[in-house]
What we know:
Strand content: under 5%
Structural class: mainly alpha
Number of strands: 0
Order of helices and strands: HHHHHHHHHHH
Number of domains: 1
Mean pLDDT: 83
Oligomer: single chain
Helix content: over 70%
Amino acid sequence: MFEILRYFEQIAVRFSPVILISSGLAAVIIGLFLWLGGLGFRRALVIVLGAVTGGICGFFIVGRNIMATAVLAVVAAVIATIGEKIFITILAASLAVVLAFFAFTALSPEVINAIEGVPINAPKITGQSATISARETPKVLEAFVGDFISRAKQAAINMPIYGWAVMGVLAALMLAAGCYQQRVTFALCCSVLGTTLIFAGMILLLLYKDSRPVTIIDRNSSFYVAIIGVMLAFGTIEQLLLCPGLEKTWMRRKGRRNDVQESGKKRWRT
């Protein structure tokens, strides 16, 4: 998988600086919000995450049909709102499986040997001064997504049995945690998503400076894995300690608004 990311690193420096900077800053800001305060806005985030999940699924199911994708996003958001606890539980289990899957793609010799032979179909950019315009960027990204999916499929086919067993155990643990420890589970989910977005945003910003961040991470993978682990733990604990106060504040405000509305109705009746 890192081979695709390294090639993307070579191509991304040709993107428009506006695209790299704006998307990088947006990813970092949203990531910080999720990492440090996602638990305090659980209901709103469930709606947003449900819509994003539905939109992504719709993109892969119906392609570039914007209306159909939007409808699926709205439907997914409604379903996530109605079944909030179920959605959080499924989200946690899915994140655990995805993280374990990519860990095995980087560690399992069988998987590594299998995906090395998969060709990269992303466009080749020739010339040192060649620039990818804003119109061409979606096509380039779509090609990289296709290559990524092809390698993920090949990795899944060649995944050893013990890898699937580990992913099954992690999924079961997350399902149990989602059923009995809702707050902890959602705080962990927000920490994972926030950390991922922060790293993605920083990579995009460093690509603008042509600093080769993917290559550096690949060479010092153990160090960055440790940093990610610390960030996940800190984000989860920080949310559990500080966000309850935020939730109580929102509940108090909501209660005051309801009291004001009730008192207004009583006065109007009298």
